[in-house]
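Tokens as discussed.
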């Protein structure tokens, strides 16, 4: 009996996404007893503290709970599609390198399988034009990937010709030849939280997401998107694709193989710089320059405007905003607040105008897109509202109000399944918010969305759907 087993499960899920259902729980228990015996620690609370505070200990432990099952040329039809169709197309489109990432690469068989296939097809040309990366959370398995020595277990289903051509036997193991080994570079990366940059053209994420629950898979989608080139594709394992269809990316199919790509309207944008911008903005208070007097005054006006808005004193709020905009007509916070006031007063063209002014300065403003979605919704322009809300959930997958209004728009368009799925997402995000309040995703939008009311509305709509179908 491990008294604090849920604490362990929570810590690991928070850090690397692995979700402990019954089968995985047995793995966790075994790993704990093994590692604690190695460390000669008997107290589960003491070991938990070690795991929590020491990155080295966490790295050693993670190796015991990852499932690294893989083999060469696994689900080979996907690899064929990539090598035969995607790579030639991408090579034709550009002069720079085409980049492929095997995410959750385990001991490297997937990445090397691609390298072998590409070598067979393109020979020397591959060296200059195609880059292959593997990444995994487990440092021990990455060491094995770099070493590239495999037992016969990894060669299930490999043609003998390929095995002989690219591997040399050494005892019971087969060593991959350097000409292929050197084509792949491996990196320690937590794909839930970190991004490998520059962006890649093809991401393979096969047999990894099955160990994550739905909110984590959704988070993962958002993160992978930032690593994917606008024209790129994300491939899951054949059986996993549908469980990963969140409507964030577009599901496509070619030769019977499913993959995800950017929606056309978002394909032109490159999400990564937004992250860079965010990092650049994350200065500590001490690092920030002292505000100039005018900036300080504007910030006071904005604070007052927000307080008036909360009290529904719209004309007072308007006056404060007018002072800011007189001094700084492009001030995004002021435009946003003014847009919300206009929305409250049903002056939709003013709301839309302000949102467009913000987007002209920052095409990534989720706040402006949310305002446009709401303005369209109130004007019964359902399809346009859907398009804007989709963009918000694509950028901010944890922001449940956007999911909620998207669900509403689906329901009004009689798209029953997407509506039900999206209401469930809202419920899940609201539950997450209760269990982990620090996970809440907020925008700088000065509109209050009371969670309990929206939970009630979702439950009601889901019950209605159940009633209609049963
Ligand atoms: C079953 S293997 C899949 C190997 C290969 N992709 C395949 O399809 O054969 C799953 C791998 O995902 C890795 N993994 C799990 N969580 C991860 C995370 N948060 N970041 C990166 N890799 C992770 C594990 O360490 C493991 O090596």
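Sequence:
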């Amino acid at each position: 009996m491990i008294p604090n087993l849920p604490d362990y499960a929570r810590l690991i899920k928070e850090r690397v996404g692995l979700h402990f259902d019954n089968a995985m729980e047995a793995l966790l228990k075994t790993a704990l007893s093994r590692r604690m015996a190695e460390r000669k620690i008997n107290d589960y609370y003491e070991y938990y503290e070690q795991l929590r505070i020491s990155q080295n200990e966490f790295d050693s432990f993670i190796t015991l709970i990852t499932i690294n099952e893989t083999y060469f040329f696994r689900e080979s039809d996907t690899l064929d599609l990539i090598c035969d169709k995607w790579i030639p197309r991408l090579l034709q489109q550009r002069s720079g390198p085409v980049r492929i990432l095997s995410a959750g690469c385990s001991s490297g068989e997937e990445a090397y399988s691609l390298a072998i296939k590409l070598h067979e097809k393109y020979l020397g040309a591959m060296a200059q034009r195609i880059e292959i990366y593997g990444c995994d959370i487990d440092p021990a398995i990455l060491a094995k990937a770099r070493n590239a020595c495999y037992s016969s277990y990894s060669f299930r289903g490999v043609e003998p010709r390929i095995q002989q051509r690219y591997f040399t036997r050494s005892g019971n193991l087969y060593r991959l030849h350097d000409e292929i080994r050197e084509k792949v570079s491996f990196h320690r990366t937590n794909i839930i939280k970190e991004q490998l940059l520059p962006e890649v053209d093809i991401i393979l994420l096969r047999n990894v997401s099955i160990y994550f629950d739905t909110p984590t898979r959704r988070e993962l989608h958002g993160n992978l998107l930032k690593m994917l080139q606008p024209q790129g594709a994300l491939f899951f394992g054949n059986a996993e694709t549908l469980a990963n269809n969140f409507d964030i990316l577009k599901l496509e199919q070619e030769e019977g193989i499913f993959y995800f790509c950017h929606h056309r309207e978002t394909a032109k944008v490159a999400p990564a710089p937004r992250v860079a911008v965010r990092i650049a903005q994350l200065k500590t208070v001490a690092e920030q320059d002292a505000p100039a007097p005018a900036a300080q005054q504007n910030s006071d006006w904005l604070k007052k405007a927000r307080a008036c808005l909360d009290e529904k004193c719209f004309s007072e709020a308007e006056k404060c905003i007018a002072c800011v905009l007189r001094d700084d007509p492009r001030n995004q916070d002021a435009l946003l607040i003014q847009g919300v006031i206009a929305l409250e007063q049903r002056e939709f063209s003013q709301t839309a105008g302000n949102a467009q002014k913000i987007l002209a300065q920052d095409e990534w403003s989720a706040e402006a897109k949310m305002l446009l979605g709401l303005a369209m919704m109130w004007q019964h322009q359902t399809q346009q509202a859907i398009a804007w809300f989709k963009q918000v959930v694509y950028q901010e997958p944890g922001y449940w109000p956007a999911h909620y209004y998207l669900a509403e728009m689906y329901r009004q368009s009689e798209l029953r399944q997407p509506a039900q799925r999206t209401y469930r997402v809202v419920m899940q995000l609201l539950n997450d918010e209760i269990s982990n309040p620090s996970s809440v995703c907020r925008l700088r939008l000065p509109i209050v969305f009371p969670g309990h009311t929206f939970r009630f509305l979702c439950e009601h709509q889901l019950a209605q759907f159940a009633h209609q179908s049963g």
